Amino acid sequence: MCGIVGYVGYRDCSEVLVSALTKLEYRGYDSAGIAVFDNNEIKVAKSKGRLADLVEKMKTDGKPEGVAGIGHTRWATHGEPSDVNSHPHSGAKVTIVHNGIIENYKELKKFLTDKGAKFLSDTDTEVVAKLLGYYYKLNPGKPLDTIVETIKELEGSFALGVVFQDFPDVVYAVRRESPLIVGVGKNESFIASDVPAILQYTKDYYLLEHDEIAKLDCNGVEIFDEHGKKLEKELLTADWDMDAAEKGGYPHFMIKEIHEQPSSIKTTITPRISNGLPDLKECSIDLEKLRKFKQIFIVACGTAMHAGMVGKYVIEKLARVSVTVDIASEFRYREPLISKGDLVIIISQSGETADSLAAMRLAKKLGASTLAIVNAKGSSIAREADMLIYTHAGPEIAVASTKAYIVQLAVMYLFAFDLALAKGMIDEAECKRLTSILQDMPSLIETILETELENTQYVSNQLITAESLLYIGRGLDYALSMEGSLKLKEISYIHSESYAAGELKHGTISLITKDMPVIAVATQSALLDKTVSNIKEVKARGAKVILIARDDFNVDEDAYDYIVRVPKTEDLFMPIPAAVPLQLIAYYTSVLRGNDVDKPRNLAKSVTVE
Ligand code: M6R
To answer: Which residues contact residue 512 at a Cβ distance below 8 angstroms, ignoring those fewer than 6 apart?
Structure first.
């Protein structure tokens, strides 16, 4: 959950590293550092805090000058954020940056300490640096052999950028589990944890696979397998452009990404619709295959899991197949009852979430078919799944997920229509009708973005002093409330919970006071009366109620304090437009509270550790 970069070329390396790291700060931002060959010496600059703090520090202390080096932005796992725990870390004649977790670092540390090594930091990374130093002494002048020997000893996940004192202007990289790409430009090359870091320099890159090692020098890039044997790899081209990784005039990535949702949905669903029907054949999904699945599990974390919750309602309603939604970290340890003939759907924006990846591997081991719904191209989950539907949201930089969630929903719907058709639960005409409603979603969202910005700002103003609040809803509104609540708490730091509205009176209603605002979601006509009764129950106990309701619903004015109207579509589809005001409320509340919207405290975009 850190970001690593590396550069070899002709530009000012410190500047390239800092600029590339700004695109990876979403992966971690509690400290940053770089190491650059400066007059053939490895010079390190690092500091606790944001990348901006490092830049300031280098203004005073001087920045390393050179054309090759490595860099890091950190999300602390082992050892608190501090100067000394910041990367890079060094061993004898070797300096590294690391993203991942070394699970056997304690054993390795003991081994190295017994050999006389002295450690400065609390990190697992320094153990790798010292181990590389140890093997380099055994293989002097042989960096590749040193890396080959070292990674044999490592357990866990890592993407490493490595420089050896004896080999100025050469950068090595190696990965296991944690993502890493190698960018190829004209007379320059790069390593990075994610594509946006290199987009301003090149779109061409290699995807490093498990235990592959890259060597970058003035002659270009060479890639080797875990035994040091040279490999020929396919050069890929990123289809994301630079603008996708820039704010483009918006104050924050989050609000930019909220506005990108209509186009993200279009780009995701349009290529998967032919003759008005879902067409997932290019994702290896056909009607014959779909017909055979007995039960479905949806496994994911955070927002992606919430998309799965909506998916459950939609799939069960349309296809009449039982769907269980699991949090990946629970699924992987609960000995799930799945077997051949079951389908496990893994949803993930990053495609690198450690628990989701482990859950998918478990599902495969148990004989289930796996379908990944993933945004990041070439990510581990995407590569290992049996079937794959890419969402085309483009890079999502804000830590709080918005456009990735919307396209996950869109794919859930498309999949549900296809499955319902395959199972004979709907006919082609109905499937076409549903598909065409889905195609209307971008314009509904555009309407909300035109009409509700001020209204949601007003609502956020009412929330900024709250210490705690509740989101309530029934059915699909409850599934959506979960996401609304997560969005608000992760960026506003206001405690909030989502609750099934009908469940309130079984305990939670005792929390209601005038100081506990309630955001009630009511978009389902069949459940409206029931939800309104629950709203009145909390209103009667003094709660300030903010109602998110379909625009044609008639609700007594005394049942709520503020209302946000959501343009009408069929009940089943309402979570898609209704998600937008919930995102906006979270966004404005965070802005009004003066928080760092795109980089909320303690979080990182891609959770590659358990
Ligand atoms: O990359 P993934 O979709 O697998 O990530 C899952 C969660 O970590 C992620 O959705 C997280 O909950 C976000 N901070 C939500 O905004």
So the answer is: 470, 518, 538, 541, 542, 543
From 26, 75, 329, 353, give the residue whose CB has the most ligand 1 atoms within 8 Å, as the site to mutate.
353
| 283 catalytically annotated | no
- Total domains in the fold of the chain: 3
Q: How far apart are CA 297 and CA 369, in angstroms?
A: 10
Whether 429 and 548 share a structural domain: no
Is the CB of residue 302 below 6 angstroms from any atom belonging to ligand 1? yes
Domain CATH for 286: 3.40.50.10490
Residue type, 115: K
Establish whether 2 is a catalytic residue: yes
CA 314, CA 320: separation in Å to the nearest integer? Answer: 9
What are 485-518's pLDDT values in tens digits? Answer: 999 999 999 999 999 999 988 988 889 999 999 9
Å from CA of 205 to ligand 1 middle: 25
Check whether residue 201 and residue 317 sit in a common domain. no
- The torsion angles phi and psi of 88, rounded to 5 degrees, stand at -70, 160
Range of the domain at 505: 450-590
468-480 pLDDT tens trace: 999 999 999 999 9
- Whether 597 maps to a domain, the answer reads no
Residues 434 and 459 in one domain: no
The residue annotated as part of the active site, out of 2, 13, 283, 431, is: 2
Torsion sign across C-alpha atoms 559, 563, 569, 571: negative
Per-residue b/e over 525-534, b at no fewer than 16 CB within 10 Å?
eebbeebbeb
Q: Whose CA is nearest to atom 7 of ligand 1?
A: 302
Name the pTM for this structure.
Answer: 0.80
